[in-house]
Amino acid sequence: MATLIHDRPEHVRLSQEGKPVTLLEAIREGIWEEMERDERVFLLGEDIGAYGGAFKVTEGMQERFGALRVIDTPISEIGFTGAAAGAAHMGMRPVVEMQFIDFISCAYDMITNYIATSRYRGSGGVP
């Protein structure tokens, strides 16, 4: 029988209101904290700016951090994934949001044949 996370209270993080923190809330909080801490962190994705993302994870971030750090991209998962890879090679800390898991297949070539192997094809690593 499967164990639900709520059956193990030591694994449940509560919000200030005393409610369990959802996965989306935890992701949002983590991104926000890193963007506050490190100016090299920026976001790329479809509808993540003014709209706030399909699941509202990035809501309010463009207002707080600006359009140069929360970048709405065209519908081209391979394009913005490649842009993120290039930025990482230059010392930036990009975070890519794909609206739905199905769309990761559109960037699969970039992820598996470029990002995953760039360490071995370059000068020894990614900053």
Please give the structural blueprint.
Blueprint lengths: L22 H15 L3 E5 L15 H5 L4 E3 L4 H13 L3 E5 L10 H8 L2 H4 L6
Parallel strand pairs: 1-2, 1-3
Write up what this structure looks like:
There is one protein chain. By secondary structure, the protein is an alpha/beta fold. The chain has one domain (5-121): Rossmann fold (3-Layer(aba) Sandwich), CATH 3.40.50.970. It contains five helices and three strands; from the N terminus they run αβαβαβαα. Strands 2-1-3 form a three-stranded parallel β-sheet, with helices on both faces. Helix 3 runs parallel beside helix 4.
Low-confidence runs: none
Terminal CA distance: 44 Å
Structural class: alpha/beta
Give average pLDDT, whole number. Answer: 88
The major pleated sheet works out as:
3 strands, parallel
Helix run count: 5
What fraction of the residues are assigned to beta strands by DSSP?
A: 5-15%
CATH topology: Rossmann fold
- CATH class categorisation: Alpha Beta
